[in-house]
Amino acid sequence: MPGENLSRDEAQERAALLSVDGYEVSLDLRSAVGDRGDEPRTFRSVTTIRFRCSDPGATSFADLIAPSVTSVSLNGKDLDPRAVFDGTRIVLEDLAAENELVVDAQCAYSRTGEGMHRFVDPEDGEVYLYTQYEPADARRVFANFEQPDLKAPFRFEVRAPEDWVVWSNGAGERTDGVWRFAETKPISTYITAVVAGPYHYVTDSYERVLGDGTRLEIPLGAMCRKGLAPYFDSDDVFEITKQGLDFFHDHFDYPYPFGKYDQAFVPEYNLGAMENPGLVTFREEFIFRGKVTRASYERRANVILHEMAHMWFGDLVTMVWWDDLWLKESFADFMGSFSMVEATRFTNGWVTFANNRKSWAYRADQLPSTHPVTADIRDLEDAKLNFDGITYAKGASVLKQLVAYVGREAFLEGARRYFKRNAYGNTRLGDLLSVLEETSGRDMPAWSRAWLETAGVNSLTPQVLLDAEGRIDELAVVQEAAESHPELRPHRVAIGLYRRGGDGALERYARAEADVVGARTVVAELAGAEAPELVLVNDDDLTYCKIRFDAGSLDTLRAALGDISDPLARALCWSALWNLTRDALLPARDFVDLVLRFAGRESDIGVLQMLHAWANSALTFYAAPEWRETGGRLLAEGALRELRAAEPGSQHQLTWARFFAAVAASEADLGVLQGMLAGTEKVDGLEVDQELRWAFLEPLATYGVAGEGILAAELARDDTASGKRHQVRCLAARPSAAVKAQAWASVVESDVLSNALVEATIAGFARPSQRELAAPYAERYFEVIERVWAERSIQIGMDVVRGLFPSLQDSPATLEATDAWLAAHEGAAPALRRLVVEARDDLARALRAQACDAGGQG
């Protein structure tokens, strides 16, 4: 990726020199259809930029990544494209106070989900286009100044095939064969968008009378590929959309500012979704082809609301540079859960947040690459990698702590002032802190230094001393930090005391809130309480920390975890136990045993799905190698037992069926899956739809029971884009050296596969039961990754470097090979080194956990 990077220093220099008045972008997408033979498929992009320069006579540059430039004109003077364009930048010399730049280029369609992505539906041959830019891929579609603080209004016009519809950020109409779109408000380049093709499109509208009596009407639209139209539950999408708009209008006191609100579900999408104002894009997997659980609908609702929150946090008010990416992503992640719990049917959303989102944050915050929430982003490659668990989930957790710290109303009033003062502008950390200090009276710089400007996660452990009568004499909370990140933070926490009631359930009988400061804090309010069986620090999940247990509480959980009646408290205990397992303080086999004994009683389906994922990870990475076979057999037996015992037709039954497929390995297990596929093995109430068929076929392919012919027949049954991804993954999963060689070559030595098929191939290549087959590729991995990083797009580079790291070769030798590569490649791209360092840390953690498991104790 040489030449495509942009440093923060360069962006600052350009922002000091230039200000942009507006863009006019004309795209001709008619080349997307038809046979082009061997000719590279490109489209014409003509961009006119009007901008001012504070230092006339100075030199700057515009950004463009394109195969060729036909012409460049600056202030009416034609420039030689060969002299001013190097493939990524257009040099602009002798600028005037007011300037007009016109660039006529041939831009390339993408197969990697970056820029203008082109997808051909295998089901009907239709072509679908969409754009995806964050952080800096708008320059693959039109010439621009690609940095978030050079905002401007945009006007788009698009020529497209006659039977297509085209959408952009503003409202559009077709006249004389050209789609023309209303000018946008001032926005950043990375949130402009175009979607084009024969999409299935559904409309609705949202109406609201504002506080001043004016009537707000927002046209709503939702679209997907025609092949997904039979599965598209747009009514539910619109319901969540309207509930979210109500919530944000109620609490933000700033009407939605971008006119219409379209939501496009698009194929081969790299992200969950993207907050383009007026035209949000989502991965089409949020349209469910088969039966899914409530957790899947909750996840979709959360993403819809996350992107909607961005209309204010990110689109209306945007960070100056990617250092403050948290100003949009942390807020959107928090507001997604906040609004979902208060405005939709998913009232248990904080349980999912505690169990799922925060586990992502805890992992990221213990990597060597952890960083403060407000980060040091040197360039665009840094920015791409910082869309991580720190920026999203830790930042959201910190904001949840902030609400507990300053109070809900002070927080929301701060947000309202922030929007009004900075509308259509760019901000830094201090801009937000200043309004929150106004509204709360709290010392926000001190809070920021502790929570936003330092890295690492604290551990909170209770210490309980009892008096002679068996009551609490003293209860204290001990705070610890890692040596690498020694900051002890102020935590607003709730401490819950639990005992068994008459019905045997573990119930909370006492609770106190306290400000935990420093290494040890005594919670005086709980002195004199009856002795607890379980002490839960951070009850109600107010702060961001790793929960630890005293010895008595841990014994209670080992015996009676399933008896905790409160779903959030139970989820917090599960999360804490998983962190103990990852930290090599609880043997992996003990965690698996807890899942086998208590997961069947878990009422929250999202927590259950997380437990299944954790149990599988515990077996694959953290269990001692000599116990893996036994552990796998126990998990498969337990999963099949729970599957047969689950309520017929329930979401729990479906979840256990999927988990059974994930852990099935024995001949008997595989026979059960074959029987369910053939209809000879019946589980009352379980509907084996097409998505579940692929889930059953994957282990059959992995163990050599389903070969190429069976998979080809299944693809014929499901000849769709989704079916093709499933087939590619299953083909790569087959237990053959030749299969692995072919899969490796198709990803590493070729760029023919699209991003979605690269992802599917990598997922099939690395199978825990095929460690020996993958072993020869450990050495090859270190030989090729620098070349892959240099030659491929950053998205594909990330997929390959992360996905093909030899984590299944979990031995000290692999650790040594990783260290040797890092030592020999100190000059490699920092973003590439970061990915390898993170994978190395995961491997070292796995080896520590395996040693713990082999020893039988933490």
What does this structure look like?
It is a single chain. The protein is of the alpha+beta class. The chain is built from 28 helices and 28 strands. The strands form 7 sheets. The protein has an 8-stranded mixed β-sheet with strand order 5-4-7-2-1-10-13-12. Helix 20 (708-717) packs antiparallel against helix 21. 52% of the residues are buried.
- The overall pLDDT average reads 95
**Cα-based radius of gyration, to the nearest Å:** 28 Å
Helical residue percent? Answer: 40-55%
Looking at how many chains there are and whether they match, the oligomeric state comes to single chain
Q: Helix count, per DSSP?
A: 28
* Largest sheet geometry: 8 strands, mixed
Secondary structural class: alpha+beta
Give the overall shape.
Answer: globular
Strand content: 15-25%
Low-confidence stretches: none
Query: How do the strands of the widest beta sheet line up side by side?
Result: 5-4-7-2-1-10-13-12
In short:
The protein is an alpha+beta fold and 858 residues long.
Layout of SSEs?
Layout lengths: L7 H10 E11 L13 E12 L6 E4 L4 E7 L2 E3 L1 H4 L4 E4 L5 E11 L6 E6 L6 E6 L21 E6 L5 E4 L3 E4 L2 E4 L12 E4 L2 E10 L5 E10 L9 H19 L8 E6 L6 E2 L4 E5 L10 H17 L7 E2 L6 H18 L5 H17 L14 H6 L4 H17 L1 H15 L3 E2 L1 H12 L3 H8 L7 E8 L5 E9 L10 E10 L5 E11 L3 E3 L11 E6 L6 E2 L3 H10 L6 H16 L5 H11 L6 H18 L5 H18 L5 H13 L3 H12 L11 H13 L5 H10 L3 H13 L3 H13 L5 H11 L5 H4 L2 H15 L2 H10 L8 H13 L5 H26 L3
Parallel strand pairs: 1-10, 16-17, 17-19, 20-21, 22-28
Antiparallel strand pairs: 1-2, 2-7, 3-6, 4-5, 4-7, 8-9, 9-14, 10-13, 11-14, 12-13, 15-16, 18-19, 22-23, 23-26, 24-25, 24-27
Helix pairs in contact: 3-4, 3-5, 4-5, 5-8, 6-8, 6-13, 8-9, 9-10, 13-15, 14-15, 15-17, 16-17, 17-19, 18-19, 19-21, 20-21, 21-23, 22-23, 23-26, 25-26, 26-28, 27-28
